[in-house]
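Section 5: illustrative case.
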């Protein structure tokens, strides 16, 4: 039997069998690769992850042991041995937890044995001698350079253990990545096979079905026009030859095809509905997260207020009555509570942006800068600084938020000043298309270009709190306020010295350059009032 005499069913079955065979082969290979990938991921997640964590904890436990021994040797106080006892117990627990994970890694297990042997030797030759010494003076005689070298050798072995665990993790990650890429390649091959099968199916249908049906339809139309004597000849596969004898079968087939198209359309509509629901759920989740941040910050206020009040009361009432260390601890508690209050207040302010709104109105930024100058007067006076602003427009927004925005920028410029140089802050504006570009420039310590984006991340600090106080949320609040007003904020890194932070705000419709109002000169065009300057 030649291929031309095959029925349509035989042709489709042959094509499907060929495609299915290729896909089954690909599926088998993909299953094997997926199993390897799962093993690599299991090693990466369930073995190397805990091993790295336990190795770091083991190093901490060993350091705690040495700290406890040295502390006891210095003070002779048995309470100072607590880190040593706790570190020893932690070491044993960690080693016991790591053993099962290293059943298939003999080299790493041997390295762990080496670390444990060195730790045991140090404990027997140094720690136990110090612990059993009759007095602190005798105990200190065992804290020698040789003891330190021995401990350093143990830490070097521990570093080697960490390196071997890291290499195991990197190898597992590379293997997982490789098998993942192989899976992707197999999926691409499967997709290509399906596409080629579709093209082959289309070509086969065109030759075996579409052309014969078109010819059959032409014959039926001629018969319908009255040529009843015309003989209808079926061409193509045997199925279509029989179709010429039964037009109703064709109608049923078409109805079935239409039903299939309808089912596909319903499926597409269902998928679109699911996507819309997921988008709505995502929006709801974002709102819930904002609400959670607000509620959490708000609910933390009351207990923290009590902590701050009572620690301050304790500081005032018992200052000088306890020893110096107790006064220092109380001062630490007061400082920590106050810093936490500032942090919660800033977080609360951050979460309120966009949630609690009074509506947008026309805001004169010149007047806002007057309020900013008043708010920053004490900081400016302390630093002997200067604040200058000029040509500030009227924009559409919330005055309170814009005041907070400019206050944060000016306060940052005053805070991050150069030692011995009086700070100078200049706020200006220019129009760029349909936006106002407002700049806050200073002569401070500046920002390195690689940190230009990080400063707007919440709680991101480039300096320690001892060098420059603050919560690290001020510029994040500024960024959120600008984005809430439809603008953007960035750091201009092309400056010779200091820092220039720019942000954009949309131009009000009344500021359209083609409108009659825009053609009038601004009210502050008087040269004697063009620039406002405040000097401490």
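Designed sequence:
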């Amino acid at each position: 039997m030649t291929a031309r005499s095959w029925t349509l069913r035989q042709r489709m079955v042959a094509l499907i069998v060929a495609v299915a065979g290729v896909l089954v082969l690909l599926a088998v290979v993909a299953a094997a690769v997926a199993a390897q990938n799962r093993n690599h991921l299991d090693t990466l997640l369930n073995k190397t992850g805990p091993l790295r964590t336990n190795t770091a904890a083991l190093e901490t436990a060993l350091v705690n042991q040495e700290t406890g021994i040295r502390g006891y040797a210095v003070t002779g106080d048995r309470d100072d041995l607590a880190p040593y006892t706790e570190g020893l117990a932690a070491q044993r627990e960690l080693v016991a937890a790591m053993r099962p994970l290293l059943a298939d890694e003999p080299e790493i297990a041997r390295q762990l044995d080496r670390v444990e042997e060195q730790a045991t030797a140090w404990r027997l030759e140094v720690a136990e001698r110090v612990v059993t010494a009759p007095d602190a003076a005798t105990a200190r005689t065992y804290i020698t350079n040789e003891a330190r070298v021995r401990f350093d050798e143990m830490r070097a072995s521990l570093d080697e253990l960490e390196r071997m665990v890291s290499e195991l993790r990197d190898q597992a990650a590379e293997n997982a990545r490789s098998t993942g890429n192989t899976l992707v390649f197999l999926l691409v091959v499967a997709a290509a096979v399906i596409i080629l099968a579709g093209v082959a199916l289309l070509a086969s249908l065109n030759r075996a079905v579409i052309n014969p049906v078109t010819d059959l339809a032409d014959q039926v139309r001629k018969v319908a026009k009255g040529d009843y004597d015309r003989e209808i000849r079926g061409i193509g596969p045997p199925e279509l030859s029989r179709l010429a004898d039964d037009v109703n079968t064709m109608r049923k087939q078409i109805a079935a095809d239409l039903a299939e198209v309808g089912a596909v359309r319903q499926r597409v509509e269902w998928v679109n509905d699911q996507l819309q629901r997921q988008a709505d759920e995502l929006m709801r989740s974002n709102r819930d997260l904002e609400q959670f941040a607000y509620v959490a910050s708000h609910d933390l206020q009351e207990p923290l207020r009590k902590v701050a009040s009572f620690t301050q009361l304790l500081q005032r009432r018992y200052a000088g009555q306890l020893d110096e260390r107790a006064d220092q601890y109380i001062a630490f508690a007061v400082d920590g509570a106050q810093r936490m209050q500032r942090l919660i207040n800033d977080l609360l302010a951050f979460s309120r942006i966009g949630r609690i709104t009074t509506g947008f109105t026309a805001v004169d930024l010149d007047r806002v800068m007057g309020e900013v100058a008043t708010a920053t007067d004490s900081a400016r006076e302390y630093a002997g600084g200067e604040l200058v602003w000029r040509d500030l427009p009227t924009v559409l927004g919330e005055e309170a938020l814009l005041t907070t925005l400019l206050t944060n920028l000016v306060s940052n410029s005053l805070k991050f000043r150069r030692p011995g140089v009086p700070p100078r802050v200049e706020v200006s504006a220019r129009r760029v298309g349909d936006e106002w570009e407002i700049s806050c420039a200073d002569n401070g310590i500046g920002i390195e270009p690689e940190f230009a984006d990080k400063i707007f991340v919440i709680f991101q600090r480039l300096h320690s709190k001892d060098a420059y106080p603050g919560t690290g949320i001020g510029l994040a609040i500024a960024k959120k306020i600008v984005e809430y007003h439809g603008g953007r904020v960035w750091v201009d890194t092309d400056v010779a010295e200091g820092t220039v932070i720019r942000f954009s705000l949309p131009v009000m419709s009344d500021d359209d350059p083609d409108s009659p109002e825009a053609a009038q000169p601004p009210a502050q065009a008087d040269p004697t009032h063009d620039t406002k300057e405040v000097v401490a």
